[in-house]
Amino acid sequence: MKLRIAIQKSGRLSEESLKLLKDCGIDINNSLNKLKAEANNFPLEIFFLRDDDIPQYVEDGVADIGIVGENVLLEKNKQVKTVNKLGFGKCRLSLALPKDKKYKSIKDINGLRIATSYSNILSSYLKKQKINAEIHEISGSVEIAPGIGLADAICDLVSSGSTLLTNGLKEVEVILKSEAVLISHKNLGKQKNEILDKLLFRIQSLKSARHNKYILLNAPDNKLDAICKILPGMKSPTILPLATKGWSSVHSVLQEDQFWEIIEKLKANGAQGILVVPIEKMIL
Ligand code: PRT
Ligand code: ZN
User: Fold this and answer.
1) Residue closest to 68 by CA, chosen among 13, 3, 10, 11
2) What's the pTM?
3) What's the pLDDT tens digit per position in 205-227?
């Protein structure tokens, strides 16, 4: 029994999707082959598809799981389960206007023609906001629509904002924040669920590792109590005596979001020689 995963064939999510599998220790055969590949050391088959098709394939059960942007998932509105957010492919779906057009509130969108590839998401957003606008669905190069007179505004994905800038547009509302997610067919069955659980366990270890750092520091023994109170650690910090009498080395794990705050407190409490190293995998 093999689990079949659909990932984007070539595009913004391809490299990171393959890297995720690789970081999970999954070795993929001939990924250069256009449509399909197999893992050597994990019961996984990989299908390379256009991102737009992935939700449908997973709904139909042609693929068991898939990696796709939340933007595509929401737009396609297929019956699939979202299993996990993956932390890459981050972007937002936004409304943008020509930069010299006045904008105070969403009401200014009333009556405009908006070009987008996301007509479903946009129309439900406009409905919720009680805005009446005309949606022009186009499949690509949305950002040029106002310049050529096709539309007055656009609704498109933004990450750095440079595409908007070079096309003389400004972002006025964020409709959706998106990142890549792992989706699955609604009823995988026992055996496939077991394989998926194995994969999820590995993904979770990578995600925990990404959010944590390993920290090593030296401290005088009389400051150890204070320092241990500052350090959260997975259980409690490891303390090893140094060759220099009266000093110890303290090892622990820190979460990235509290990182600087804790480092400052540690320094203030006599910690020296602080080293911070990335963690590759973290099994909780
Ligand atoms: O061929 P296929 O259909 O598979 O690929 P695609 O061309 O439809 O998709 P692709 O590869 O462009 O994007 C795949 C997914 O990456 C999207 O569905 C999003 O979930 C995610 N993603 C993240 C982005 C961006 N960032 C992004 N910046 N997708 C597209 N863009 C485009 C945007 O459309 C605009 O043209 O990049 C431009 C804006 O970028 P900035 O940096 O200039 O703001
Ligand atoms: Zn696409």
Assistant:
1) 13
2) 0.90
3) 999 898 899 999 999 999 999 99
